[in-house]
Design goal:
139 residues, alpha+beta, 7-stranded antiparallel beta sheet
Length: 139
């Protein structure tokens, strides 16, 4: 079961906003990266990285993830979402997701900047029953 976001939060997720995605290193320290994020369906978030990157390693070991976005005009108006990664995608599905993100964020039909020898890895974050945080405008 996935959670449904209110319209204000959905609008932020559907716009080309940069989100800060937090994962956990093996020693418990936080790891945070600015990321492209997209909403799929009513309550499923997706983001990508390359195979072998720190985010992938962290999320395979510990699927907990935290996303945050602050409004550019008012940084105290923010959205915070926490939960767990529900599944990992690779191959053509990961390439397709990366291309959708490139269209959203760059207006390009394809994402052309995959590192040599690298392969994209997609993460689907399900914030359904495993959601352990708050979402919504925090202003």
């Amino acid at each position: 079961m996935t959670a449904a976001f209110d319209e204000a939060v959905r609008a932020r997720q559907q716009a080309p906003n940069v989100w800060y995605v937090g994962t956990v290193f093996a020693d418990g320290a936080p790891q945070v990266s600015p990321m492209w994020v997209d909403l799929e369906g009513e309550g499923e978030l997706t983001f990508n990285t390359s195979v072998g990157r720190v985010k992938e390693e962290n999320l395979r070991r510990d699927p907990r993830v935290y996303l945050s976005h602050a409004d550019a005009a008012n940084p105290f108006d923010r959205v915070q979402i926490s939960g767990e990664v529900a599944r990992f995608v690779d191959g053509q599905e990961a390439h397709d997701r990366m291309d959708r993100l490139a269209r959203k964020y760059l207006g390009s039909s394809r994402f052309e900047w995959i590192m040599p020898g690298g392969a994209p890895m997609g993460f689907v974050k399900d914030i359904g029953l495993r959601c352990d945080g708050t979402w919504g405008s925090m202003a």
